[in-house]
Amino acid sequence: MPAEIPLPRLLRRPLLWVLILGAVLTYAVIAFVDTPVEVLPQFDYPQVSVTAHLPGTTATELEHLVVNPLESQILALTGLRSVHSTMGSGTVEIDVRFGKDSNAQADLQAINGAIDRARGELPTQVHPLAEIMGNAINEVADYAAEIPAGIAAARVQRAVQANIVPALRALPGVQFVYTFGAGNEALWIQPRLGAMRRYGIGIDTIVQAVKAQVLLAPGGYLSLGHNDVLIEARNLPTRIARLRQVPVATPQGPVPLTALARIVRAGVPIHNAVSLDGHPSVALTVFKQPHASTLAVTRAVQAALEASQPQLPAGVHWVRIYDQGYIVGMVGRDLGRNLLIGAALAVLLLFWVLGAGRGIVVLALAIPLSLALGIAALHLMGHDLNLMTLGALSVAVGLLADDAIIVLESIYHCWERGDAHWQGILNGVRSIAIPDVTGTLTNVAIYVPLLFVGGLVGLFFIPFSLAMILALLASLLVSLCFIPLGLGFIGARPSAGSRSGQHLLEWLQRANQKLFHWVARAPRLSLGITFAVLLVSLVGLVLVPIDFLPLPNEGTLLESFTLAPGASLLESRIAVQNITTRLLADPAVAHVDARIGSGASTTYTEPAWAGEIQVTLKPGVNVNALDAIGQRIQRESQLPGVQLSVDTPTIERVGESLSGLPQPFVIRVFGSRIPELRRIAGEITARLKRIPALADVFDNDGYPVTQLQIEPRSAALALHRLTPAALYAQLDPLIDGQVISRVPQGNVPLDLYVRLADAPHRSVADLSALPIRTAGGWTPLDQLARLQLVQTPNQIRHIAGARALDILATPTGPLGSTDAAARRALAGLRLPAGYRIGFGGLAAELEQAALGLLLAGAAAFAIMVGILLLQFDGLLIPGILLLEIPLALTGGTVALVISGVGLNAMGMVGFLTLVGIGLRHSIVLLDRVRHNEAAGMPVDDAVHEAIRIRFRPIVLTALTAMLGMLPTALGLGQGAAPEQGLAVVILGGLAWSAVRSTNLIPALYLHWRHRQLARQQSG
Fold first, then answer.
1. In 3D, which of 836, 889, 880, 833 has the Cα closest to residue 1005?
2. How far is 599 from 607, CA to CA, in rounded Å?
3. Can you give the pLDDT at residue 847?
4. Which has the least CB within 10 A, 225, 328, 925, 955?
5. Which residues on adjacent β-strands are paired with residue 190?
6. Rounded distance, CA 787 to CA 805, Å?
7. Of 25, 277, 233, 21, residue with least CA distance to 144
8. Which position has the higher pLDDT, 5 or 165?
9. What radius of gyration, in Å, describes the C-alpha atoms of the chain?
C-alpha cells in the first residue's frame, strides 16, 4: 500500500481484515443456524386473554361466579387500557389490554397474580388460563385418533393423558398439549330411583357411602432396624367389582351399592364432541413456545407420536390433521431457494457483463456477505425469519448489489482514467461515498415511519421494515469497506467482460441516448405522459385481486360453523355429520376432523352450537386450485341455518390471535338489565340499517335462549324440613352429575362419578316428578320447587366491568364519515336513566395510528429533504428528486395489471421500496452532473457525461435486482406464493426506475437548470 495514502500500519495488514471478516461470518453462520424460520412474526402485543370454563352454566351465572371475582382483581391493576369480558354457554373470555409501551411478559405476570388473588372466590372446578394475545398462531400440530369400533374414546383419551401427553410436554419448545374429545374415564355410578325409594335412602347417602370408602393418608413411620418405614393408609376402589360391594346404610340395614345403582367404566359426560371422518375421536393439539422453532417442535412431536404407538389400545393410530411445520418448511425452502437462485443469476450477470476478474469475485461475495450481516443483525435484535423478514431479504438480494456496483464502477472509472492502484480506490470511494450514503439514508428514511406504526399494521410490517433497514445498512457498510479493501488487497484490475455482455450494454446505452434526446426536447410533455401512465395504471388496479395476506397451500382448510344460538349439541352433531359425509365424497379431501364446542381443558371458547372442521387435503393438490377447492367445500357444506366460513388454518388463527382487537365498527349499549339493553339495541339496529355506508348490521349479544329455572318453594321446604341448599345437594348429583372423588391410578387419577344415566334426556315433566328424599318419605320435585322455562341471554359482555351489548356493522365507506352518520342517526335516541351508548371499534384506533403514521411520515420526509439539501445546494435537485415519490409507483402498478398477480400487504410495502430505488439511482446521476458542473463543464455536457458514466452501474443494479426477484415473481415454488405480488411490483418498478432516472430526471434537470441559469444571467 503506498505511503502517500494515510492509513495506520495495523490497518494495512490483510490478515487483520481476514480475521475480522472471519469473526463476522462465524457469528452470521451461528445466527442463521439459531434463527428459526416461521410463517408470521411473533405477536408481542400488550394484551392478555384469560379463558375459563364452567360447563352447563348460563351467562348470568358465569357473570356472578367467575367474571365478577376475576374483574375485581384485574381492574385494580395499573396501566390498563381496556378490559373486555364475554361470557356465555359455560365459557368466559376476558381480554385485558395494556398501554402500548407496556411489556407483554410483565403484563402476563400481573394478570396471573390477579387470577391467584381471585381463586378463593372462584368455583373449585374453574381454572382460568392467561396467555399473551397471539398465542393461537403457536398452535403448530393437530392430530386425531382413529379409533376402531368397540373401543371407548374415553379409554383412548386416558391412555394419551397417562403416557403420551407427559412425553410431549417434555419436548423442548412445547408450551401446551391439549387432549380432548371424551370425558375423563370414570367409574360411573348410575343411581336407580326405584331401588332408592324401595330402600328409603336419598342420593346424598350413596355419595357419603362412596366417599367414606376412599382413603389415602399418611400414618406416621416405624423405625425398623436401620430404616425408617413410612406408614400409608390406603383404600382406593378402582375396580367395578369392588365398588359394587361398598355397603350403603339403609333403614333396613346395609346393602351393597350394586343394589342401588348400576356401575360402569365410561367417560364423564361432556358438552362438546370431536369426530374424525364421522366417527368419535380424541384430538391432540400442540402449542409451541412463542420463540421456539416450529420445524423443530413439529418434527419432535411427530417422532414422539410414532414412538408412542404401542402405548395406545390395539388398532388405534394417529392421523395428522395439521402440521404448521409443513408450511414453515415450504416457505423457508422455497424462499431460500429463490434467494439462492436470484443471487446466482445476479452474480452470473455480473460475470457476463463485467468479466471474471478478481474485482467481480469481490463484488459477487458482497451479496451473500450483506445478507449474512442482515440476518445476524436480525438475530441480535431477537427477530426470526418469516414471510415478512424473508420478503425483505428477497427484495434486498438485488438491492444489496446496488451499493457494491456503484462503488466498484467508480473505482474502475478512476483506474481507467490512469490512477494508481490504491490511489484509484481512494479516489473512487471519495467520489461516490456521499451519494452512496445519501441514497442509502433516503432509502432507510422511507422505512422509518413503519417502525412507529402500532396496531395490526405494526405487528406485520415492523419486522419487514427493520429487515430492510438492517440489510441496506449492511450493504452500505460492505460497499464502503469490503469492496475497496478487497479490491486493494487482491490486486484487482478492470476486466473487459464478455463480448456479448459488452455489446448488450453498448446497445442499451445507444437506445437510451436516443430516448434521452427525445425526452430532453419535450421534458414537460414527457412528464405529463408519465403522470398519465401513472393515473391509468392506478385505475387499472381495480382489476387486480386484493388479499391482505395470502398464504400457500397448507395441506389443510379450516371451516368454521355456527348454528343458531341455543341449538343443542345433538343438532350440531347431526349438522356436522351431514357436512362430513358430503366432504368425504370430494375427490380432494382425505380426512375431515370436526370439533363441536370447547373442551374444558382448552382455551377454545366456542359454545355447543359452533366449532371448527379441519379438512385435510390429499397430497398433490395444486396450490393454484386452493381457492376453487375452498369455494367448493363451502358449497358442499351448506345447510339451512348454518353459517360457514372457509380459510387456511394460519389465516383463521391469525384472526383468533387478534380477536381481542377492536372490530371495524361497534356501538355499545351500557346498562344493568339485559331485557332493556336488548330493547335499546334493537332500536339502534333499526336506525343503523338505514345508513347506506353500513352493511351487515349484527345484533347477537343477549340473544334470548331457553333456560329451565328451578325456584324452591319456601313454605314447602319448611314443611318438609329442607333448605334450598339441601334440595340442591340432591338435585346436583342426579341431574348435573358430581365427581365424588378422584382416586390415584397410575399417573392419571380415576374419577368416581355419580349421575342418572338418562339425565339430559328427561323431559320437564320427568324432572317435575323426580322423587326427592324428605323427612316424611319421598316428595316430587314440583311440590318443593317451581319449574319454569324462561329466557336468558346467550351471552353478556362487560366493558371495564360494566354490562354492555355490542352492535357490530361493516362500514362500506370512510370510517370518519360513517361514524358521523351513525351519530346523527342516534341523536334523538331516548335512553332510560342509568343507560348510555358508546362508540367503539377501529375508528379511534385508526385515527390515532394515522396521526402517528402522519407524524412519522412527515418526520421521515423532513429527514429526506434535509439529507438532499445538505448534499445539493439550492432547491432544484431536491425538488426534482421528490418527484420520484409519486413516479416510482408507475412501474409496479403496470406490472401488477399486466401480470394479473394479486396485490397484498407485501406488494403494498414494495411500492415504498421502489421510491427508495428511484431516489438512489437519480441521486447518483445528479450528483455526477453537479460534480461535472463544478469542474467547469457546460450544463449540457455535464448531463450527457453523467448519463454516460452512470448508465452502466444504474442498469447493472437494476438488472441484478430484477434477476434477484425473478424466481419469486415467476411463482417458483408454492412457499413463495405470498411474496409473488411483492416480486412483481419490484420487478416492474426496477425496469421503470432505470429508464426514468437516466431519461426523465436528467431531462427535467436540464430544462429547469437552463431556465435557472437564464434567470441568473438576466438578473
1. 880
2. 10
3. 60
4. 225
5. 262
6. 29
7. 277
8. 165
9. 36
Angle (CA) 77 82 87, round 5°: 100
Q: Could you give the CA distance from residue 684 to residue 806 in angstroms, rounded to a whole number?
A: 11
* CA distances (Å), origin 329, targets 176, 319, 437: 22, 20, 37
Burial of 122 (0-12, 13-18, 19+ CB in 10 A): middle
The confidence score (pLDDT) of residue 398 equals: 60
Handedness of CA 218, 223, 224, 227 (dihedral sign): positive
Q: How far apart are CA 262 and CA 209, in angstroms?
A: 15
> In DSSP terms, which residues pair with 50 in a beta bridge?
94, 130
- What pLDDT sits at residue 311? 92
pLDDT in tens, 397-419: 666 667 777 788 788 888 888 88
C-alpha cell read off for 409: 464502477
Instruction: Tally Cβ neighbours within 10 Å of residue 422.
Output: 17
- Residue 367's pLDDT is what? 75
Average pLDDT over residues 331-359: 79
Q: What does the alpha-carbon distance between residue 576 and residue 562 come to, in Å, rounded to a whole number? A: 10
pLDDT digits (tens, 9 = 90+) for 557-601: 888 888 888 888 999 999 999 999 999 999 889 999 999 999 888
138 burial level (CB within 10 Å; 0-12, 13-18, 19+)? buried
**For range 806-812, the mean pLDDT:** 80
Residue pair 144/317 in contact by the 8 Å Cβ criterion: no
HSE (side-chain half, CA atoms, 13 Å) at 427: 15
Euclidean distance between CA atoms 380 and 574, whole angstroms: 53
Sequence-separated (6 or more) residues with CB below 8 Å from residue 114: 70, 73, 74, 76, 77
Q: Measured between alpha carbons, how far is 339 from 399 in angstroms, rounded to an integer?
A: 12
Residues 6+ apart with CB under 8 A from 726: none
The set of cell numbers assigned to 675 is 331485557
Range name among 146-155, 246-255, 624-633 with the lowest pLDDT average: 624-633
H/E element holding 928?
A: helix 905-934
CA 396 to chain centre: 24
How would residue 548 be classed by pLDDT, with cut points 50, 70 and 90? low
C-alpha cell at 246: 361398598
d(Cα 475, Cα 504) in Å, to the nearest integer? 27
Q: What's the pTM?
A: 0.81
What is the three-class DSSP state of 615? Answer: strand
Residues in contact with 407: Cβ distance below 8 Å, sequence separation at least 6, in sequence order = 428, 429, 432, 436, 479, 480, 483, 484
* Residue 747 buriedness (CB in 10 A; 0-12 / 13-18 / 19+): exposed
